[in-house]
Design goal:
Blueprint: H1 3-78, H2 86-89, H3 102-107, H4 111-152, E1 163-166, E2 169-173, E3 180-183, E4 186-189, E5 195-197, E6 202-209, E7 215-222, E8 225-235, E9 242-243, E10 248-252, E11 262-269, E12 272-274
Antiparallel strand pairs: 1-4, 2-3, 4-11, 5-10, 6-7, 6-9, 7-8, 8-10, 8-11, 11-12
Helix pairs in contact: 1-4
Length: 286
């Protein structure tokens, strides 16, 4: 065999070896790529499952926020506040404004990425709605607190159990003086010693004998409201004492000018007599 033949054979063998190595490398590379692709596909499948589960959670949170929004509207009604416009309530819906970042653009390239971006947008919207609701609750709570304090200081109960024998009147025939005189309150006939209760929260300003009114207790409730309880047989509070609605302050008697045991009850607003019926929430028994 000639030297040339040997060289040709060696060249062919070398080509075969190099080709085999190249094909083997390509096969291995393809196998690795396929394995990596399979891993990525499985990862994306898991990611899709997690996104779907997260979307269910977000939907549940959205439903809860809708329920809280409805309750917020009710609380605002109780607080005497205007309702939040429906468009404003939905202000949290929608994605972030402005140009997308490189991260956002990359995330949005695949189906899972787009789902993830939509999920993030929904979460961002829910956070804004939750923040708005939190502010609304704070404002409503402050308003309710003011309203509750004002209601507690409004003389809305009848201060003694008994029978109403004389109503508020600009003029009426006085049972003793026998001439027409204003009757600036209501008379409640009751046995001597019947408890007289504060008609609202307030501060006792006077406990004294006031001529024809006899022993009288006066309570200031703020907002220009004052209540007076006359003809008492006994007072159980003192000047400057704070009292709560329904708290006993005196007992029914017939001190001063009176023909029988009863409570003469007055309400004054900024110094002017008002009909107690305007404030009492329950009907006054006759």
């Amino acid at each position: 065999m000639s030297l040339l033949t040997v060289r040709v054979l060696l060249g062919v063998v070398a080509v075969i070896v190099v080709t085999a190595i190249g094909l083997g490398y390509a096969a291995v590379t393809k196998a690795v790529a396929l394995r990596e692709l399979d891993r990525l596909e499985r990862r994306n499948a898991y990611l899709a499952q997690e996104i779907a589960r997260s979307e269910q959670i977000v939907d549940s949170i959205g439903t809860a926020i809708d329920s809280i929004t409805a309750r917020d509207s009710l609380i605002r009604v109780y607080a005497g506040m205007d309702l939040i416009d429906a468009g404003v309530q939905q202000a949290g819906i929608g994605g972030p404004a402005g140009e997308w970042t490189e991260r956002d653009q990359i995330l949005s390239e695949g189906a899972e990425g787009r789902d993830a971006m939509a999920l993030l947008e929904n979460l961002d919207g829910l956070m804004r709605r939750a923040t708005m609701l939190s502010s609304s609750f704070d404002a409503a709570a402050e308003s309710v607190e003011v309203h509750v304090e004002q209601l507690l200081r409004t003389p809305s109960i009848l201060p003694a159990k008994g029978w109403t024998t004389s109503q508020f009147a600009v003029q009426r025939m006085h049972p003793i003086h026998h001439r027409e005189l204003p009757h600036e309150g209501v008379d409640i006939a009751a046995p001597r010693g019947t408890p007289i209760l504060a008609a609202a929260d307030g501060t006792v300003t006077h406990v004294y004998n006031n001529g024809g009114y006899g022993l009288m207790v006066t309570v200031s409730h703020g907002h220009g409201l004052v209540t007076r309880y006359a003809h008492c047989s006994k007072a159980v509070v003192r000047q400057g004492q704070r009292v709560a609605r329904g708290e006993k302050i005196a007992e029914v008697g017939m001190t001063g000018i009176a023909t029988a045991p009863h409570l003469h009850y007055e309400v004054l607003q900024y110094g002017r007599p008002k009909d107690p019926k305007e404030f009492i929430l329950t009907a006054i028994p006759n």
